[in-house]
Amino acid sequence: xxxxxxxxxxALDVEPxxxxxxxxxxxxxxxxxLCHRLGDLNVVxxxxxxxxxxxxRTRLLxxxxxxxxxxxxxxxxxxxxxxxxRVVATCSVGNIPGQWVGQARPGAVLVAPWGPVYxxxxxxRLTVTRAxxxxxxxxxxxxxxxxxEQRRTLPPTNAFLDPRAWPAGGAESTTSLCxxxxxxxxxxxxxxxxxxxxxxxxxxxQRDLYRLWLFDTGGTSWASADHVRGxxxxxxxxxxxxxxxxxLESAWCWWDAQGRPGFDRFGLTxxxxxxxxxxxxxxxxxxxxxxxxxxxxxxx
Length: 300
Ligand SMILES: C[S@@+](CC[C@H](N)C(=O)[O-])C[C@H]1O[C@@H](n2cnc3c(N)ncnc32)[C@H](O)[C@@H]1O
Known about the structure:
Strand order of the largest sheet: 3-2-1-4-5-6-7-13-14
CATH class of the largest domain: Alpha Beta
Number of helices: 7
Helix content: 10-25%
Bound molecules: S-adenosylmethionine
CATH topology of the largest domain: Rossmann fold
Number of domains: 2
Largest sheet: 9 strands, mixed
CATH architecture of the largest domain: 3-Layer(aba) Sandwich
Low-confidence stretches: 296-300
Structural class: alpha/beta
Strand content: 25-35%
């Protein structure tokens, strides 16, 4: 997707003489563009898939480019080529590997698609500080394949309940929040950042109906919300020790109350606290709900 490649290169903002580490060689096109701009000796690209890497090598040679191509797990970076002035990941992550930061110079720029388990993802443009921390903003939405080691196999619906037994004694209520209004990429991002162990599924899809399921990765609770096109009230069933629909609704209401911010108002800091997503300023972290908040004794 050329617009995505070029917007990420614009965010990377390379300068003559910069050394760049790319994670995810893929076709080799981005590596070729970087070589064209910075010279072969300044570009290292890591690809985990041997066949994909071999094809990229052939293509790059044919086009007259000779970057250092490494076949291996890009989550480890490539220490032999460090230090880097720029690091660009062309696969997405939920956790930025420490090696990428450790192999970058202070002041280096790291560009990577980042997203929570629930869904929603955006490209983060982060600067490496002297203390080895990262800080910066999201610069636009994205939808990349996940870095191989960070792909999660989430439990299937029948790990929580037999769908034929639904509503299975769950607590019933109604909501005026339409399940269709929580499913855009930015909604999913805002919800997923606040409730990091939440994930969803959709079932029973018909012309004007579907069932949205919510689960926690710990397998403790489930909720369902039935969408009916044009309705003003929707049936909700919740089971387990958490009320996952209520957690989602609180997360959506927080996003709504902030003026429905887009990706460009969010930023990310990675430091001793872990990955902290903030709104407008690093001093304004996005609240955490559910299990994380409970563990810290906060209200959900
Ligand atoms: C969207 S493609 C990259 C596009 C590429 N930059 C280009 O110019 O065509 C994502 C690539 O990341 C690779 N990938 C996934 N996990 C990886 C990992 N742990 N280390 C290195 N590459 C990985 C995939 O095999 C895939 O080729």
